[in-house]
Amino acid sequence: MTTGPMTRTATFLGMPPFPVAARKALADSQLRGNLRDATHTIRTKRARVAGELDDWEQLRVAGAAIKDDVLANLDRYLQELEESLTAAGATVHWARDGAEANQIVVDIARSHGVEEVVKVKSMATVEIELNSALEAAGIAAWETDLAELIVQLGNDLPSHILVPAIHRNRSEVREIFLREMGKAGMAARPDLSDDPADLAGAARRHLREKFLRAKVAVSGANFAVADTGTLVVVESEGNGRMCLTLPEVLISVVGIEKVVPTWTDLEVFLQLLPRSSTGERMNPYTSTWNGVTAGDGPQEVHVVLLDNGRTKVLADELGRQALRCIRCSACLNVCPVYERVGGHVYGSVYPGPIGAILTPMLRGVGTDEATDALPYASSLCGACFEVCPVLIDIPEVLVHLRGKVVDSHRGGVPAALQAAMSAASWTLGRSGRLELVQRLAGLSGRVLGRGGLIGRMPAPLSRWTDARDAPAPPRESFRRWWARTDGGRADPGSPPGTPGKAREQV
Amino acid sequence: MKAREEILSRVRSALLASPQGRASDIGGHRGIPRDYAHTRELPDLLGLFVERVEDYQASVIRTDEAGVAAAVGKSLSGARTVVVPQGFNPSWLPDGVDIRADEPALRADELDACDAVVTVAVVGIAVTGTIVLDHTQGQGRRALTLVPDIHVCVVTADQIVADVPEAVHRLNTCVQRGRPLTWISGPSATSDIELDRVEGVHGPRTLHVVLVESATA
């Protein structure tokens, strides 16, 4: 028995709220460089292959409509899926939350007496922290996707839906492999270079022995077809095929929103997903299977249908559209906020724009500060909506959730925002008051402003300045300048400027 | 309440407030706008298929029926032990290779010791450069085309369709019969390290396609 993978729960709990974490991430120039290169590369590829199809918009409309139909009739499609899966020889389990799903997986693994399972990259299993649950039960869970392997061996957290190790460069990967592979199984050769092909070769050798001996595999699914009981896994490396094919037992953890009504509906999603995700016309491998196939692949097949907050999202009539998401990550790659801060600061397995709406709805707004900060982690520029293959209007949902966050904090002591609004109303009520306040501000700006900016202020003003730099007020207000210079005629060369130079907004 | 009943009940109460879109029966017309292209007019279907497969760093040899064995032989160059699934046309095999049958089923480590596998496919997709296997005659169970490092796949011209919707349509009967499918677009690949595409991680690192233009499957 080899030693288990490095203990690191997938949990993001305890992460500081977005504005605090973002400050640290923004200061990491290596991270920002890696992210800029990566996101720009993928978004360019995506735009090119999406542009190749002259019916791209019609595909998006169809994709959204199919998912909306699924959501509006989810109870019936889930029962149909259960029937089809059962008829195909699979055992269907239902899990209300992560703990229940984890217990089901642990019990199945235990019933086979295994000490390890191999895993295909699956967002749902990271969401429910399955690896920790398995580890607590004495079962090692080996991640087999290259990026997930880098994250797992590096005792790290995923930072992107599609390329979870996007924050690591090649020399960091080499160091992790040299240091950690030997502890988890076959060691990397000491002369390992930092060439990506060489690193991929090391992963191939390291994982092959695990694939060949594994008895139990755990996967997610990209789609679950209700009328045929077909599960679909879309991947690149072949680690998915290994896990879905070689072991004797296969357990797939599937979010209840993954159902699509018919096999024919895949003609839409198998065009939308690869082009939106990796920017390829088709991903290298797509596997589909219907329960158990005699003489081919796992002869014991389990499917765990997972709620874990999805019905809460469904109950939000406007926010429900987030459940259309097919996890392509196109919204991350075009987001000006994600590009600069990376995935970790979102404090969830679902980062970027989709995470900023999905996470608060899955967890519920008003539960903790970090979750409530997420709907504000956006400039509302709308780039995410433009690329979303299933037309999720992320900005609309962000604004909707901001409203819910504010509502959840109503009552009790008046918030700073309300106090500020009252003050503004008094100030703007009479022109004399405005002039007085502007003169005071001009004076205070000289005291507080550095480089033309006001940095962090004490509470309650910190609630504004923690996340934003405010320009320091000018020495002279526009009204005073107008009066002094006769509307600029007496002194055309000096309009009321701000002290210091303009700064690029980030 | 059991988990199943509770989840279904949560779903129903979530939908109670907004009943629009609830279908009276599943399976009928669901009001999905499907005005996307169901086929594509391609001036050179086979030419595009070849171009798109080669785009993934896979090789393609175009040949007629008589040239298949030679093309397979050329694709196999260097491979010593070759797995050949049941039902593969023996006249398409070259001389001088050590053929392993999957009868009785090879263990995973035995498969791992084989250099290559030769199969046919059921569908080829031109626009995406994809071949699809349903793992019936001549294709073998899924592990055969996964573990060996070289995959040589013989497809016939009549199997090539323009794009994904036609392929999904053709594959409908396979799926209704419960067949597993493997869609293959080039060799195994990853871009996980600095988005630098590397051919070959866990699946076959080399994919050769032999396109037979005069034969029917």
Describe what this molecule looks like in 3D:
The complex is a heterodimer of chains A (506) and B (217). Chain A has 506 residues and is an alpha/beta fold. Among the domains of chain A are: 71-310, Rossmann fold; 419-485, no CATH class. Chain A is 49% helix and 10% strand. In chain A, the strands form three sheets. A six-stranded parallel β-sheet of chain A has the order 1-10-7-4-2-3, with helices on both faces. The relative contact order of chain A is 0.12. Chain B has 217 residues and is α/β, with parallel strands linked by helices. In chain B, the strands form three sheets. Chain B has a six-stranded parallel β-sheet with strand order 1-12-7-4-2-3, sandwiched between helices. Chain B has a four-stranded mixed β-sheet with strand order 8-5-6-9, with helices on both faces. In chain B, strands 10-11 form a two-stranded antiparallel ribbon. Chain B has a single domain, classed as Rossmann fold (3-Layer(aba) Sandwich), CATH 3.40.50.10420. Strand 9 of chain A pairs antiparallel with strand 9 of chain B, so a sheet runs across the interface.
Pick out the low-confidence regions of chain A: 1-11, 498-506
CATH superfamily descriptor of the domain at 71-310 in chain A: NagB/RpiA/CoA transferase-like
Span between termini of chain A: 50 Å
* Largest interface: pair, residues per side: A-B, 101 and 81 residues
Which properties best describe this structure?
heterodimer, A: 506 residues, alpha/beta, Rossmann fold, six-stranded parallel β-sheet, four-stranded mixed β-sheet, 23 helices, 10% strand, elongated, disordered N terminus, B: 217 residues, 12 strands, 24% helix, 23% strand
SSE blueprint:
The complex is a heterodimer of chains A (506) and B (217).
Chain A: H1 18-26, H2 29-51, H3 56-72, H4 74-87, E1 90-95, H5 98-111, E2 116-119, H6 123-127, H7 130-136, E3 140-143, H8 146-153, H9 170-184, H10 196-213, E4 216-219, E5 223-225, E6 230-235, H11 239-245, E7 249-255, E8 259-260, H12 266-277, E9 285-290, E10 300-306, H13 310-315, H14 330-334, H15 336-341, H16 352-363, H17 369-373, H18 383-387, H19 394-408, H20 416-429, H21 431-448, E11 453-454, H22 462-465, E12 470-471, H23 478-485
Parallel strand pairs in A: 1-10, 2-3, 2-4, 4-7, 5-8, 7-10
Antiparallel strand pairs in A: 5-6, 6-9, 11-12
Chain B: H1 3-16, H2 45-55, E1 59-63, H3 68-75, E2 81-84, E3 98-101, H4 108-112, E4 116-120, E5 123-125, E6 130-133, E7 150-156, E8 160-161, H5 164-176, E9 181-184, E10 189-190, E11 198-199, E12 206-212
Parallel strand pairs in B: 1-12, 2-3, 2-4, 4-7, 5-8, 7-12
Antiparallel strand pairs in B: 5-6, 6-9, 10-11
